[in-house]
Write a structure and sequence with these properties.
By secondary structure, this protein is mainly beta. The protein has strands at 2-3, 7-15, 18-24, 30-43, 49-55, 58-59, 64-73, 78-79, 84-88, 93-95, 101-102, 105-110, 123-125, 131-133, 141-146, 155-164, 172-173.
Length: 178
């Protein structure tokens, strides 16, 4: 038997004070774990720059932050394809273009949290009332829709990057909200 009654759950996350939202079949079927990492440039043995990921407690303007969401079916039943995980782009950050990833998902974006589509299909109304194509700077939410059923004990990972906006005066906390 597959689970198919859709409901929305929220889980606490570790990242710039937001939570992942999972749309799935039954409460408790999917477990989400959020991790945040900061991209740090270090020199390798040949003295060439290399990007390293480090766990973080704070970030400053210009830092790139990676959000990694690990999911696992903790139920004894298969969850239908179509389960979706939504993450907001935190306040004072910008979505990093082409950074959203998932092995077997359809990735869409939203400028308002209501309508989701590929970035190229999104339109924004400018201050002068004219519509223009959305850019990464307009993205407020990222959605991953899983393309295949999730069998019991199956797991996967997805993620995306944001950059702390330059105008942010103080460091931004990435500690979990209690």
């Amino acid at each position: 038997m597959q689970l198919s009654n859709i409901m929305v759950l929220s889980t606490a996350s570790l990242g710039l004070m937001f939570s992942s939202q999972l749309v799935l079949a039954k409460a408790g079927a999917i477990n989400l774990k959020m991790n945040t990492f900061k991209e740090v440039v270090v020199k390798d043995k040949q003295n060439k720059p290399k990007v390293k990921l480090e766990k973080i407690d704070s970030a400053v303007p210009g830092d790139n932050i990676l959000y990694l969401v690990e999911y696992k079916n903790v139920s004894k039943q298969t969850v239908d394809a179509g389960a979706a995980i939504n993450n907001p782009v935190p306040k004072n950050t910008l979505y990093v273009p082409n950074s959203a990833y998932c092995d077997d998902c359809t990735i869409t974006f939203s400028i308002n949290g209501k309508a989701y589509a590929p970035i190229k299909a999104l339109r924004v109304t400018s201050a002068n009332g004219k519509k223009r194509p959305a850019t990464h700077k307009d993205i407020k939410y990222v959605r991953w829709t899983l393309n295949n059923p999730i069998t019991p004990k199956a797991s996967g990972a997805l993620g995306y990057k944001v950059q702390i906006k330059q105008h942010v005066a103080a460091a931004v906390s990435t500690k979990a909200v209690k």
